[in-house]
Design goal:
The complex is a heterodimer of chains A (168) and B (370). Chain A has 168 residues and is mainly α. Chain A is built from 6 helices and no strands. In chain A, 77% of the residues lie in helices and 0% in strands. In chain B, helix 5 runs parallel beside helix 13. The chains are: A mainly alpha (168), B mainly alpha (370).
Chain lengths: 168, 370
């Protein structure tokens, strides 16, 4: 148990520090890299919970897909070494205040209510087969309708992207 | 019972004995910590050692393909050539370059080597020689190996050099497209074996390798996997991210000394990882050659330790990779992307469907001859 706690605190520290660095960095591509570290540490939390499927999906989708797209977009639009001009002081102060208020608001709600609803999930690995049948099943608590809805939406996205990218 | 005596060279007895001794002598916490450290050191040592061997093998085989002799001065047949090269690279100066993004420039090699080591950790090298055996084995390998491309992109961008940048962009486009093919080819085999766990996959191929079990679609998937795996490692006819004649060295132009060594090491080990996943998924992994019913033959085959079977199969695939590398001219970037998006991907999707029909109608080899 102690090892898990130590790893959890390391991951939590990484997530906090790099989230702050991601929003405070002057260079866009560094921000993207720090965000990547945050996402990887989140994947680490899933691994700690023995939820291996979500861990792999988190890495494949966020690190392998979305971050590569982010970095590509930044590479195509930004010059190396160029700094972003910082926002005016008033706006920065307001942003800090606003996010601080949001943090306190959510934190209080979660802290007050979490003890009423939470229960420990027994940390056993969920086999992929079960996830697959649940995703594709039509019974109660099974998810074929959302799955298909999302797939149609993604198809629409692909068609739209091709329409925009086409020469004529 | 007989198997206990017929496997004199297997390492799983040694590892379980060490495990028992550690748990008997120390409290739970420290035993686990020591085991973690031991496994980590062993993996990294194997990683480095394999790179040294692979570089020598590649140079020698390349030389034979080109009717040369290859390295032959350091030791008999030049066998210590790479040891000398590695020593040289270790003591070389790391050149510090002005006007680069320092943080990203120095982190990029670690992304590449880290992704490669993480994928390396999940490979079943032999009976009981697998560091982590995830339920999602194949998916895990695909997802962690996709981290490497971020290192390439960051390296190219932070070098503040147009050639590096072009190399990185090419590499990004190439990797993202071919990763899709490799993933779907592996998923075809997941459909066939009904599991993603690498150890179960090896066990299920005891009497019939997946490539024979799924005959036609499995063969197509194997060929597509080899092509796209080869493209993912930026080698052979697909080496335009680092095309020497156009881009000096592509994304790692500005790196020197040990940092360049990281890129070099990761490239060779990625070749090994692709080959070993191929061997595990298609060719039965570490499982010795077994024929249903020939009991004494099977026992005899178990005398050859499982890790030798594994490395033998991997060596065949690596030889294929080198053969391709020195036989075909380099593709242009548009040809490369055409090959993936207009040929491999549609074939692959149809192939996946064919495999599903094959499994559902019971036309796999084991079903037919049951």
């Amino acid at each position: 148990m102690m090892i898990k706690e130590i790893i959890f605190y390391i991951l939590a520290l990484v997530i906090t520090v790099f989230s702050i660095m991601a929003v405070s960095s002057r260079r866009l591509i560094r921000s993207a890299t720090y965000l990547l570290f945050v996402l990887l540490a989140t994947a680490g939390l899933y691994l700690l919970l023995d939820y291996h499927y979500l861990f792999a999906v988190q890495i494949a989708v966020y690190a392998g897909g979305i971050m590569v797209l982010f970095i590509f977009a930044i590479l195509l639009t930004q010059k190396p070494g160029k700094n972003i001009t910082p926002e005016p002081l008033f706006q920065r102060v307001m942003a800090i205040l606003l996010s601080g208020t949001g943090l306190i608001f959510c934190g209080v709600i979660i802290y007050k209510n979490v003890s009423k609803v939470y229960h420990y999930v027994e940390s056993a690995e969920i086999p992929v087969k079960e996830i697959g049948t649940t995703l594709m099943g039509t019974g109660k608590y099974e998810y074929i309708l959302p799955f298909e809805a999302i797939s149609i939406m993604l198809l629409a996205c692909i068609v739209g992207a091709i329409m925009i990218a086409r020469k004529r | 019972m007989l198997l206990n005596y017929s496997q004199p060279l297997e390492l799983n007895k040694l590892t379980s004995r060490i495990d028992a001794a550690l748990h008997a002598a120390l409290p739970e916490f420290w035993a686990v910590v020591i085991e973690l450290v031991l496994v980590g050191i062993l993996l990294i040592a194997t990683y480095a050692l394999l790179a040294v061997v692979l570089i020598y093998v590649e140079r020698k085989i390349t030389a034979f393909f080109q009717a040369r002799i290859g390295p032959n001065r350091v030791g008999k047949y030049g066998i210590f050539q790479t040891v000398a090269d590695v020593t040289k690279i270790l003591i070389k100066e790391i050149i510090h370059i002005n006007r680069i993004d320092k943080f990203l420039f120095y982190t990029a090699p670690f992304f590449i080597i880290g992704a490669s080591i993480m994928a390396f950790g999940a490979i079943p090298f032999g009976q009981g020689l697998q560091a982590v055996d995830f339920n999602i084995g194949v998916l895990y390998v695909i997802s962690v190996s996709s981290l490497g491309i971020i290192g390439v992109l960051l390296a190219g961008w932070s070098s503040n050099n147009k050639y590096s940048m072009i190399g990185a962009m090419r590499s990004g486009a190439q990797f993202v497209s071919y990763e899709l093919s490799a993933g779907i080819a592996l998923m075809t085999m997941v459909v066939l074996s009904g599991t993603m766990q690498l150890s179960t996959m090896v066990e299920s191929q005891r009497y019939c390798w997946n490539i024979f079990n799924g005959h036609l679609p499995a063969l197509v998937a194997f060929i597509i996997y080899l092509i796209s795996g080869h493209a993912e490692t930026n080698r052979g006819p697909f080496d335009l991210p680092e095309a020497e004649s156009e881009l000096t060295a592509g994304y790692h132009t500005e790196y020197s000394g040990l940092q360049f060594g990281f890129f070099y090491l990761a490239e060779y080990l990625n070749m090994f990882i692709i080959a070993s996943i191929g061997a595990t998924v298609f060719l039965g992994g570490w499982m010795p050659l077994q024929i249903n019913g020939w009991e004494s033959f099977n026992q005899l085959m178990w005398f050859i330790p499982s890790y030798l079977w594994f490395f033998g199969k991997v060596a065949v695939l690596i030889f294929f990779s080198l053969w391709v590398r020195w036989s075909f001219p380099r593709l242009r970037i548009d040809q490369l992307l055409n090959l993936e998006w207009k040929y491999l991907l549609p074939i692959n999707l149809v192939n996946l469907l064919v495999m599903v029909i094959l499994v559902l109608t019971g036309l796999t080899l084991t079903d037919i001859f049951k």
